[in-house]
Design a protein that fits this description.
Length: 333
């Protein structure tokens, strides 16, 4: 029987009336009231932000994408065997270029449905079409919304055994409280014995990490990506941010093993945000936080995920033990 064409095998489902892509006003307001003011990571991933992040992954100093791709090239067949599932959902799927390696290995073993979750509808459509054009028999159902909405959809649409993937070291882009809340949602979504595959960047100190998370000479991908958060606030909420009033940078905090993406104020700032009913104040030299990237050690990650009812089943590290893929199994199976 002939396999349906790529367009027939791709659909994108909005998960709320506004597609859940317009940020929750309460969440953004609460983040901006923190000290220092903070913007949630998903705010930066409109079509422009997604394209800018793809530029980041191509920077010569940004090792994460290359190391993770190499791990998947070497181990995707083994991972596919261990997942033993007919459905793979991915949180923050983006372009899914690396995920293609895993999906290809899964398809060699069984029919596979891919359920990417992302706030950028255009990216879901284009990545789904590209995957289906390259991989016969793959079916893609894009879930347009934030992680929580996608996981809720999965809970209300049971089916073949499910694995949830969280690649790109994105698990570290949140506070401990936010990670715990998300792990609770993932635990509620997976049935006993089902798998959670997560990648994590491992701590390697200030010099290596600040080199990785700042633009090398002649590039501006990180700077443009961080400043796009202010453009989003201006567009969505009528804010009055002037991009030239802020210096994009990344700094490593050894106490928390975290790289912080920052927008440092060149002068005292008092910026009205009418759509949220507040004014954001940033003194000269202080900053807005536009991203965390927590760096783990293997045991700490295992303990953090394990506290939510998971057991570590397997892990794969790069030769320098700088980065890893970790496969957890939901307890009770």
């Amino acid at each position: 029987m002939r396999t349906p064409g790529p367009a027939v095998r791709v659909r994108v489902l909005p998960l709320a009336d506004r597609g859940d892509a317009v940020p929750d006003d309460t969440v953004v307001r609460d983040c901006l009231r923190q000290s220092p003011p903070r913007l949630p990571p998903w705010l930066g991933y409109d079509a422009v932000g997604s394209a800018l992040f793809e530029r980041i992954t191509e920077l010569p100093t940004y090792y994460l994408t290359r190391v993770e791709r190499d791990l998947l090239e070497r181990h995707s067949a083994e991972i596919a065997e261990l997942l033993a599932c007919g459905r793979i959902a991915e949180l923050g799927s983006g372009s899914a270029k690396k995920t293609r390696l895993l999906l290809e290995s899964c398809l060699r073993l069984r029919g596979t449905a891919y359920l990417p979750i992302d706030v950028d509808r255009g990216m879901l459509e284009s990545s789904g079409a590209a995957l289906c054009a390259e991989l016969d028999r793959l079916e893609v159902t894009g879930l347009w919304g934030r992680y929580e909405a996608g996981l809720d959809w999965l809970r209300t649409h049971p089916g073949e055994p499910l694995a949830i993937a969280f690649l790109g070291s994105s698990f570290g882009n949140a506070t401990r409280g936010e990670r715990d809340a998300l792990l609770g949602e993932i635990a509620r979504t997976l049935r006993p014995g089902e798998a959670f595959l997560v990648s994590a960047d491992l701590d390697k100190g200030r010099e290596a990490l600040e080199t990785c998370y700042n633009d090398p000479a002649g590039y501006s991908a990180f700077a443009d990506f961080r400043l796009n958060y202010l453009t989003r606030l201006n567009d969505l909420y009528g804010a009055g941010f002037v991009l030239d009033d802020f210096v994009p940078e990344a700094c490593y905090d050894a106490d928390t093993t975290t790289v912080e993406g920052r927008l440092r104020a060149r002068a005292d700032q008092a910026v009205p945000v009418p759509g949220l009913g507040l004014t954001v104040r940033v003194p000269r030299g202080r900053f807005l936080n536009v991203g965390y990237s927590v760096k783990f050690d293997g045991q700490g990650l295992a303990d953090e995920v394990g506290a939510h009812g998971f057991s570590l089943g397997a892990r794969w590290l790069d030769p320098g033990a700088q980065y890893g893929l970790f496969l957890f199994r939901r307890d009770g199976g």
